[in-house]
């Protein structure tokens, strides 16, 4: 039975180093990567990979890190890729992260020192009940932690170090891919799959210990632009049709008890406005549209347009534009064609001794798009929780199990090959 040892706290040392590097992506930027600072972490990762003896590790012009752990077996093993993303969410500051390790957690409230109003309570974070005796890592209360997805980075790096240092464990060729801009939906826009040369992949970007996910939302984005009629407010009677007010009416007309994130769970989809801006003459809103079923996803888009038409009918001189574009699609339709990818992931988790939790993601990963691009890619747990906010946390012991899982995946593919 494989046993990974977190020697000298190397895993949490990697993780706490990575989270201190600000890598927040920017959805308003048109550059690739969206923020140049993401490359700062990429350079650190490349240097560490080279130190491990992985000679081809490099950072490309778009901020992607590529590396290869060479095969050490005579078997014909498919090339497996492990992938995580370097950026953190623009929803919460990632600058000046101060990671704190709360050792031997005993169920108490965790009051974060730089803002005492930020408190992690077991009643609000259900997975904390499984962490008694474990070491919990949080930020200090003014930033997110960055476990999404720097936990995955640290775990892949630890697994790479183990495999490079233990040639007695046989595996095929392993490719490593670290991506920028996943949090803003562009994580694989410039990924070179031909250069990557992988047959199958696993994103290490999941939540609860033992979870593996083969299904994501399908996702569209929508931009609604309202063209109103501007007039001097002192002489506006019968003339002005304010784009701001029209857009506000549309937002108010959206469903409140269904089809909204606050009222949905499990396999239910939603229609969600995420930004608004504008003036009397023109106003714009951005929406995200989500569902596990592509037909329902399209229906949600039609629901939005129906509401827009109903509202704007009361404004005879105003017009609108609604543009809906595809973001990513449910990866399950691809993964169902390659059942061994999930099967070997499940077996790898079982070998760590933790219960397997097969789940669907109410969101997406780089694996969603990689799968649809021809690289089947389920999502494996990284032990990250409450991401995109100041209460984000991770467990050292869960992260150790993620490292074991990655190593076991590599070994199982070799075992099952001829």
Automatic annotation (TrEMBL):
<dbReference type="GO" id="GO:0006518">
    <property type="term" value="P:peptide metabolic process"/>
</dbReference>
<dbReference type="GO" id="GO:0006508">
    <property type="term" value="P:proteolysis"/>
</dbReference>
<dbReference type="InterPro" id="IPR010161">
    <property type="entry name" value="Peptidase_M20B"/>
</dbReference>
<feature type="active site" description="Proton acceptor">
    <location>
        <position position="182"/>
    </location>
</feature>
<dbReference type="InterPro" id="IPR002933">
    <property type="entry name" value="Peptidase_M20"/>
</dbReference>
<feature type="binding site">
    <location>
        <position position="148"/>
    </location>
    <ligand>
        <name>Zn(2+) 2</name>
    </ligand>
</feature>
<dbReference type="InterPro" id="IPR001261">
    <property type="entry name" value="ArgE/DapE_CS"/>
</dbReference>
<dbReference type="Pfam" id="PF01546">
    <property type="entry name" value="Peptidase_M20"/>
</dbReference>
<feature type="binding site">
    <location>
        <position position="388"/>
    </location>
    <ligand>
        <name>Zn(2+) 2</name>
    </ligand>
</feature>
<protein>
    <recommendedName>
        <fullName>Peptidase T</fullName>
        <ecNumber>3.4.11.4</ecNumber>
    </recommendedName>
</protein>
<comment type="similarity">
    <text>Belongs to the peptidase M20B family.</text>
</comment>
<dbReference type="GO" id="GO:0005829">
    <property type="term" value="C:cytosol"/>
</dbReference>
<dbReference type="Pfam" id="PF07687">
    <property type="entry name" value="M20_dimer"/>
</dbReference>
<dbReference type="GO" id="GO:0045148">
    <property type="term" value="F:tripeptide aminopeptidase activity"/>
</dbReference>
<dbReference type="GO" id="GO:0008237">
    <property type="term" value="F:metallopeptidase activity"/>
</dbReference>
<dbReference type="InterPro" id="IPR036264">
    <property type="entry name" value="Bact_exopeptidase_dim_dom"/>
</dbReference>
<dbReference type="InterPro" id="IPR011650">
    <property type="entry name" value="Peptidase_M20_dimer"/>
</dbReference>
<dbReference type="GO" id="GO:0008270">
    <property type="term" value="F:zinc ion binding"/>
</dbReference>
<feature type="binding site">
    <location>
        <position position="183"/>
    </location>
    <ligand>
        <name>Zn(2+) 2</name>
    </ligand>
</feature>
<feature type="active site">
    <location>
        <position position="87"/>
    </location>
</feature>
<feature type="binding site">
    <location>
        <position position="205"/>
    </location>
    <ligand>
        <name>Zn(2+) 1</name>
    </ligand>
</feature>
<keyword id="KW-0645">Protease</keyword>
<feature type="binding site">
    <location>
        <position position="148"/>
    </location>
    <ligand>
        <name>Zn(2+) 1</name>
    </ligand>
</feature>
<keyword id="KW-0482">Metalloprotease</keyword>
<feature type="binding site">
    <location>
        <position position="85"/>
    </location>
    <ligand>
        <name>Zn(2+) 1</name>
    </ligand>
</feature>
<feature type="domain" description="Peptidase M20 dimerisation">
    <location>
        <begin position="216"/>
        <end position="311"/>
    </location>
</feature>
<keyword id="KW-0862">Zinc</keyword>
<keyword id="KW-0031">Aminopeptidase</keyword>
<keyword id="KW-0479">Metal-binding</keyword>
<keyword id="KW-0378">Hydrolase</keyword>
């Amino acid at each position: 039975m494989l046993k990974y040892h977190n020697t000298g706290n190397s895993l949490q040392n990697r993780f706490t180093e990575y989270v201190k590097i600000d890598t927040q992506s920017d959805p308003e930027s048109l550059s690739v990567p969206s923020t140049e600072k993401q490359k700062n972490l990429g350079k650190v990762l490349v240097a560490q990979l080279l130190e491990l003896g992985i000679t081809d590790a490099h950072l490309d012009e778009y901020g992607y890190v590529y590396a290869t752990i060479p095969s050490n077996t005579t078997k014909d093993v498919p090339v497996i890729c492990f992938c995580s993303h370097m950026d953190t969410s623009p929803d919460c500051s990632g600058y000046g992260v101060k990671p704190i390790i709360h050792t031997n957690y005993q169920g108490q409230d965790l009051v974060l020192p730089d803002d005492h109003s930020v408190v992690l309570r077991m009643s609000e974070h259900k997975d904390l009940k499984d962490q008694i005796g474990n070491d919990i890592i949080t930020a200090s209360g003014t930033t997110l932690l960055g476990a999404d997805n720097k936990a995955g980075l640290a775990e892949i790096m630890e697994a790479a170090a183990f495999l490079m240092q233990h040639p007695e464990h046989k595996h095929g060729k392993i490719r490593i891919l670290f991506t920028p801009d996943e949090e803003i939906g562009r994580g694989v826009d410039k990924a070179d799959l031909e250069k990557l040369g992988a047959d199958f992949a696993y994103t290490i970007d999941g939540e609860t210990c033992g979870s593996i996910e083969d299904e994501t939302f399908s996702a569209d984005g929508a931009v609604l632009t309202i063209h109103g009629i501007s007039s001097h407010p002192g002489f506006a009677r019968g003339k002005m049709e304010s784009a701001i007010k029209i857009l506000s009416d549309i937002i108010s007309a959206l469903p409140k008890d269904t089809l909204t994130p606050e009222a949905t769970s499990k396999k239910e989809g939603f229609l969600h406005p995420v930004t608004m801006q504008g003036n009397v003459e023109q106003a714009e809103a951005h929406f995200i549209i989500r569902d596990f079923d592509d037909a329902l996803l399209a229906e949600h888009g039609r629901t939005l347009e129906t509401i827009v038409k109903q509202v704007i009918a009361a404004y005879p001189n105003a017009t609108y534009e609604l543009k809906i574009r595809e973001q990513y699609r449910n990866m399950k339709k691809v993964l169902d064609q390659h059942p061994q990818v999930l099967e070997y992931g499940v077996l790898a988790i079982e070998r760590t001794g933790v219960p397997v939790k097969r789940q669907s993601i109410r969101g997406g990963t780089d694996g969603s798009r990689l799968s649809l691009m021809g690289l089947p890619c389920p999502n494996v747990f990284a032990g990250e929780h409450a991401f995109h906010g100041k209460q984000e946390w991770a467990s050292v012991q869960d992260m150790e199990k993620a490292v074991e899982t990655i190593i076991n995946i590599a070994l199982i593919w070799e075992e099952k090959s001829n």
